[in-house]
Specification:
Blueprint (H helix, E strand, L loop, with lengths): L1 H20 L1 H7 L15 H15 L2 E6 L2 E6 L2 H9 L8 H11 L10 H9 L5 H4 L3 H17 L9 H16 L8 H4 L2 H18 L6 H7 L2 H20 L1
Antiparallel strand pairs: 1-2
Function: May be involved in the metabolism of insect hormones and in the breakdown of synthetic insecticides.
GO molecular function, one term: heme binding
Cofactor: heme
Length: 246
Amino acid sequence: MVSLYLLVISLTLVWIYYLWSRRRYYALMLKVPGPKILGHTGASKRDLIPLTERFFQKYGNEYLSWVGPFPVYITREPQLIQEILNSPHCVKKSGFVYKVISNILGDGLMTSENPKWSKHRKLLNPAFKQNILFRFMTIFNTETKNFLKLMDSYVGTGEKDLLTDLLSLAFRTTTQTTIGSKVTEHEAFKTNTLMHSFEYLQDTIIKQILYPWLRNTQILKLTGLHRPISDAISFLNKTVLEVKSK
């Protein structure tokens, strides 16, 4: 019994020391306006954007929110976003977000930490030169024209939710410029099966970020979510390999 008390006291002291060592961070954090308790914790995917917009209206263009025990700084100020993205001091990635992505999609450039990330990102710079991007203009123009035709078909039909159509436009353009234009010949692309698999994994990532308990493998198996996730990953990998092998 004495050993248990000593363990509890030791853990409490360690926790207090941890909080004390970060006191300046917490003091600065509390100066930022925002919801003090739940924030985005438990929000569904449908409610995420409307909830964020309500917080922007209430607190301004930047605010501090929460996802479980993790504080999240959210901003829509263009100048501030540019400074953050260009700063060499803001390259450390959020563990609770990128760990979820790497668990589902695997390790890659997007989830890698410094110095690996910075080194490989510089190697990719030549791929984004203007003469390279011009090669994709045909894809951009074709997909944009198809999207505008779709918009024309909506005229006079009342209010429409365009989010799905915009996501489809982004997905079709992105897959052709990354995997290759031959992806349009694949049956999974024509039937939107490829896009639906990607959307499912995207939804899964969002859910695991908002609901941390879903990151546990045993809970996923009990809820029946583990198999669909595994199947979607396998299908995406299989499709990409088939397209690249042509």
